[in-house]
Write a structure and sequence with these properties.
Layout: E1 2-9, H1 10-22, E2 28-34, E3 39-48, H2 53-63, E4 67-71, E5 90-94, E6 97-103
Antiparallel strand pairs: 1-3, 1-6, 2-3, 4-5
């Protein structure tokens, strides 16, 4: 048994969950945030037999997309003549998903 942990963009989460459910795979979804951009994400936990891990990864990969997000830096906190300087926005490429697969010693549905 394996646990697939997938952190996906919040806009892709519903498509991923639907695709997993259509294949008879269930998951638990948590709203999350963090990373460099501190954007909203969804973290999916999917417990599957080892022979279905590739199917899960393929489904998630197919239903997420890379995006370009605009990062607006905050003004400098230094009290100098440059304190009013606000750096221009920067476009940052955001990957579609981060997927981690870990072994599960015990799994029970009660």
């Amino acid at each position: 048994m394996k646990l697939v942990i997938a952190v996906v963009h919040e806009r892709d989460a519903a498509k991923c969950v639907e695709a997993l459910n259509d294949r008879g795979l269930t998951c638990t979804r948590f709203e999350s945030s963090g990373g460099f951009l501190e954007r909203k994400n969804a973290t999916l936990f999917i417990a599957v037999d080892e022979d279905r891990v590739d199917t899960v990864v393929e489904l998630i990969t197919r239903h997420v997309k890379e995006r370009v997000e605009t990062l607006q830096a905050s003004p400098t906190a230094v009290s100098t003549p440059l304190a009013a300087f606000v750096p221009p926005p920067v476009d940052v490429e955001v990957h579609g998903a981060t997927i981690i697969v870990v072994p599960v010693d015990r799994f029970e549905k009660i």
